[in-house]
Amino acid sequence: MKILVTGTKGQVVTSVVEAAARLRGAELITLGRPEFDLTEPLAIKEAIVAAKPDIVISAAAYTAVDRAEDEPDLAYAVNVVGAASVAEAAASLRVPIIHLSTDYVFSGEGRGPRREDDETRPHSVYGSTKLEGERAIASLTPHHIILRTSWVYSPFGGNFVKTMLRLAESRETLSVVSDQYGCPTSALDLAAAILIIATQPIRDRFGVYHLAGAGESNRSGFARQILAASRRHGGPFADVRDIASADYPTKARCPQDSRLCTEKFEKTFGWHLPAWQISTETVVQRILHQDQSTTLPERRHSVKAR
Ligand SMILES: NC(=O)C1=CN([C@@H]2O[C@H](COP(=O)(O)OP(=O)(O)OC[C@H]3O[C@@H](n4cnc5c(N)ncnc54)[C@H](OP(=O)(O)O)[C@@H]3O)[C@@H](O)[C@H]2O)C=CC1
Ligand SMILES: Cc1cn([C@H]2C[C@H](O)[C@@H](COP(=O)(O)OP(=O)(O)O[C@H]3O[C@@H](C)C(=O)[C@@H](O)[C@H]3O)O2)c(=O)[nH]c1=O
Ligand SMILES: [Mg+2]
């Protein structure tokens, strides 16, 4: 079976490549920049059609949440027009598309966990473009699985876990918001689930699903778990101080409560992701044991004396 994934260096695409290497009979193709740029719709379609995959996993996206506020046109070009072109190619080949979307499609007001048919009302350019991308794909092909996930971290690319580890190298205390709730999700776990659905007949199960790490946390609780895991494995440690979102201004407004209810995915596919605490432990351990020059780019890694 030929599986095509968009992107080359992203967290999810790298995790899918790693997981697929353990799967017998799966041939994986990745298409990424500079040859494959989501801002070039015609070239995208041509490249996908030429590759003749059995399924398309749409994992590439414009993900710089704050920067998107200053670059709305580029975010739109990638997350809406680009995503739609990927779906058009899949539709013309009559193959399914699994597309990644986000908890940031929700405003985060009121209380979660959010269900798939709850009202969406993004507050950020990133969230708005991802929601429009979902809608474009759904209108282009009925054979779509849209997976909304959240707070993704992994040994690859940039993410909150790596930021906390990097900051802990130079600070005794990290101030982290305690009034934002969500579900931390390991890209390694996501990749395993994506391949499970990609390699079985999807039949009548197309649609939108929430898929995230089991359990929930606030950002500061997630930070504490990351740093405790790091300390257990000989990595950097810092204390975490709870602060309010108002004390950590960001360009894009983050949802206050974007916890995702994953019941629909569980019932439909008989699978759920592990508890986020367990997966955090795995990912922190892998980050600490990787070549530090590629994982903690802004400082050299050193193990702090305790
Ligand atoms: N990160 C998170 O916390 C969350 C992510 N998601 C969604 O999951 C998906 C995967 O996210 P994640 O792996 O974390 O993202 P990353 O930021 O790690 O990777 C993004 C990928 O998109 C590619 N990309 C960006 N712009 C373009 C472009 N113009 N043309 C071609 N490729 C491009 C990047 O290319 P290159 O390899 O060249 O850098 C990279 O491979 C996305 O759809 C995202 O919206 C959903 C919820 C949470
Ligand atoms: C680094 C840092 C962040 N924060 C806060 C800022 C913000 O409110 C929150 C998260 O910060 P980040 O910039 O790491 O996260 P962000 O890039 O906004 O994460 C989002 O990315 C996109 C792609 C998604 O789809 C979302 O699910 C979500 O994971 O943590 C602190 O309070 N203290 C800190 O030291
Ligand atoms: Mg941010």
UniProtKB/TrEMBL annotation:
Question: Pathway it acts in?
Answer: Carbohydrate biosynthesis; dTDP-L-rhamnose biosynthesis
Which principal EC class is assigned to this enzyme? oxidoreductase
UniProt keyword list: NADP, Oxidoreductase
Cofactors (names): Mg(2+)
Q: From the UniProt record, which GO molecular function terms apply?
A: dTDP-4-dehydrorhamnose reductase activity
Pfam families, per the entry:
RmlD_sub_bind
- Start and end of every RmlD-like substrate binding domain? 1-287
InterPro entries referenced in this protein's UniProt entry, alphabetically = dTDP_dehydrorham_reduct, NAD(P)-bd_dom_sf, RmlD-like-bd
Q: How is the cofactor bound?
A: Binds 1 Mg(2+) ion per monomer.
Reaction equation(s) it catalyzes: dTDP-beta-L-rhamnose + NADP(+) = dTDP-4-dehydro-beta-L-rhamnose + NADPH + H(+)
As recorded in UniProt, its EC number(s) are 1.1.1.133
Per the record, the similarity remark reads: Belongs to the dTDP-4-dehydrorhamnose reductase family.
Q: Which NCBIfam families match?
A: rmlD
Q: What does this protein do?
A: Catalyzes the reduction of dTDP-6-deoxy-L-lyxo-4-hexulose to yield dTDP-L-rhamnose.
Designated name of the protein: dTDP-4-dehydrorhamnose reductase
Q: Which gene encodes it?
A: rfbD
